[in-house]
C-alpha cells in the first residue's frame, strides 16, 4: 500500500529522507564494510557518530557549555526514578500534574521522598494547564517537575512555571526539538526520542553540570547515577548505538530545515489547519482549552463512541493510521510531529470534512 500517513503518538513517523539514507547505509556505513548496528561502540567510526550527534543537538538547542548531553536508555519512565535518586537532597520535590506521565513521575518520586502536588488539572480530565505563576513552593524543595507537552491529553505549557528559584525539571518527550527553548531556564530537560526525534530505545537528558554529583540517594544503582554517564560521555556501557545514529540523522535534517525557529513555524502552520477545522466543524470537537493546545498532539471527539470507531476504521482504510485516542480518554488523537508533512494534515482534514458530510 506504500507509505501511510502515520499519526501515531509514538513510536512515530520519521523523516522519509532519513529512513532512505539509513537504508542506503544499512550494509556498509561510509566504507567501513559494516552496518552501524554491527560496529563497536568503542570504535573510532562510532565515536565520530555519537560526538557529531551531540554537537548537532547542542547547535540546534543552543545548549550552554555548562550542560551535559547524555544519551541514555530505559525510556522517559526510568527518569521518573533517576531524577529523585540524583536530585532529592532534602527528600522533597514539587510536581505539577497535568497528565498521566506527570502523575506517574509524581507517584514514583513518592518512593524516594516527599512528593508534593503543587498544582493539577485532573479535575477537568487534564484538558488545561493550571496557572503556575504564583505557586506555594516551600524553601526546602529540591526541584519542581513538569511534563511540558502532554501526549495523551494534547496540552502544552506555553509559559514555564515560576519555580521561585528552584531547579526546573521537564519531561519534553513529545515536544522535543519542535520549537526553540531557552535551556538555561531548566536544570534538567529529558525526553524519550520515539515521538519526535528517533526510534524507541534512546532517552536524551540535558543536565546542568552542578546537578551531576556523587551526592545521590543511598542505594542508587551505578547505572542510575547521572555522574556515571556524564563522566563516560554516554559510553559507560554499550549505548543504544543504532538509535543514536538515527537521532543524529534527524538532527541534521532539522538543521537543513533551518533549525528550530523554522521547524516551529512549520509546526504552527500544520496544527492550525487541524485546529481551524475542529473549531468550525459541527461533528468533530477538540478537547483542550484553546490557549493550552499542543502543536504536537491534537485530541478530538465526535461525542459518539460508535461514530468515533467508524471514523478511525474508515480513516485507517484510507491510509490515515493510528488515529485512535489513548485508551484512558477514548476518541481520536492526531500526533503531528516534526516529520509529519503538511500535506498529511491537509489530506486528513479533507477526509474529516468528507466523513462529516457523509455521516450527518
Instruction: List the strand order in the largest sheet.
Output: 2-10-9-8-5-3-4
Number of strands: 14
Average pLDDT, rounded to a whole number, is 97
Task: Estimate the strand proportion.
Answer: 15-25%
**Helical stretch count?**
9
The radius of gyration over CA amounts to 21 Å
Structural classification:
alpha/beta
- Label the overall shape: globular
- Assembly status: single chain
Helix content: 25-40%
- State the distance separating the first and last CA atoms: 30 Å
What structural keywords apply?
three-stranded antiparallel β-sheet, 34% helix, seven-stranded mixed β-sheet, alpha/beta, single chain
Brief write-up:
With 360 residues, this protein is α/β, with parallel strands linked by helices. Helix content is 34%, strand content 16%.
What does this structure look like?
The chain is of the alpha/beta class. The protein is built from nine helices and 14 strands. The protein has helices at residues 16-24, 44-61, 75-87, 100-109, 226-231, 241-256, 259-280, 305-317, 342-358; strands at 5-6, 67-72, 92-97, 114-120, 143-147, 149-150, 155-156, 167-171, 188-192, 203-208, 285-286, 297-301, 320-321, 332-335. The strands form four sheets. Strands 2-10-9-8-5-3-4 form a seven-stranded mixed beta sheet. A hairpin with a 4-residue loop joins strand 6 and strand 7. Helix 1 (16-24) crosses helix 6, helix 2 crosses helix 6 (241-256) and helix 7 (259-280) runs parallel beside helix 9 (342-358). The two termini are 30 Å apart. The model has no long low-confidence stretch (mean pLDDT 97).
Amino acid at each position: 500500500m506504500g507509505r501511510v500517513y502515520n499519526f501515531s503518538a509514538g513510536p512515530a513517523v520519521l523523516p522519509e529522507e532519513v529512513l532512505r539514507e539509513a537504508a542506503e547505509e544499512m550494509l556498509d556505513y561510509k566504507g567501513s564494510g559494516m552496518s552501524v548496528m554491527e560496529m563497536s561502540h568503542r570504535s573510532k567510526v562510532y565515536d565520530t557518530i555519537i560526538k557529531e550527534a551531540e554537537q548537532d543537538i547542542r547547535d540546534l538547542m543552543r545548549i550552554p557549555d555548562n550542560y551535559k548531553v547524555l544519551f541514555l536508555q530505559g525510556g522517559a519512565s526510568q527518569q521518573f526514578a533517576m531524577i529523585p535518586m540524583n536530585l532529592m537532597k532534602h527528600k522533597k520535590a514539587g510536581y505539577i500534574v497535568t497528565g498521566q506521565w506527570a502523575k506517574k513521575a509524581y507517584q514514583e518520586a513518592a518512593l524516594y521522598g516527599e512528593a508534593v502536588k503543587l498544582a493539577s488539572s485532573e479535575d477537568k480530565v487534564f484538558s488545561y494547564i493550571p496557572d503556575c505563576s504564583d505557586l506555594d513552593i516551600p524553601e526546602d524543595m529540591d526541584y519542581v517537575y513538569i511534563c511540558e507537552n502532554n501526549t495523551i491529553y494534547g496540552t502544552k505549557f506555553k509559559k514555564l512555571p515560576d519555580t521561585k528559584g528552584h531547579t526546573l525539571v521537564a519531561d519534553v518527550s513529545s515536544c522535543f526539538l519542535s520549537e526553540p527553548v531557552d535551556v538555561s531556564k531548566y536544570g534538567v530537560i529529558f525526553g524519550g526520542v520515539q515521538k519526535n526525534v528517533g526510534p524507541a530505545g534512546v532517552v536524551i537528558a540535558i543536565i546542568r553540570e552542578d546537578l551531576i554529583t556523587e551526592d545521590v540517594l543511598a542505594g542508587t544503582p551505578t547505572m542510575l547515577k547521572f555522574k556515571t554517564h556524564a563522566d563516560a560521555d554516554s559510553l559507560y556501557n554499550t549505548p543504544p548505538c543504532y538509535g543514536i545514529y538515527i537521532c543524529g540523522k534527524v538532527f541534521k535534517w532539522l538543521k537543513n530545515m533551518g533549525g528550530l525557529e523554522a521547524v516551529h513555524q512549520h509546526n504552527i502552520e500544520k496544527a492550525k489547519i487541524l485546529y481551524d477545522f475542529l473549531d468550525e466543524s459541527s461533528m468533530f470537537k477538540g478537547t483542550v482549552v484553546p490557549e493550552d493546545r499542543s502543536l504536537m498532539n491534537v485530541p478530538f471527539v465526535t461525542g459518539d463512541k460508535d461514530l468515533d470507531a467508524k471514523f478511525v476504521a474508515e480513516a485507517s482504510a484510507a491510509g490515515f493510521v493510528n488515529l485512535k485516542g489513548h485508551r484512558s480518554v477514548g476518541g481520536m488523537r492526531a500526533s503531528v510531529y516534526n516529520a509529519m508533512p503538511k500535506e498529511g494534515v491537509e489530506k486528513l482534514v479533507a477526509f474529516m470534512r468528507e466523513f462529516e458530510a457523509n455521516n450527518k
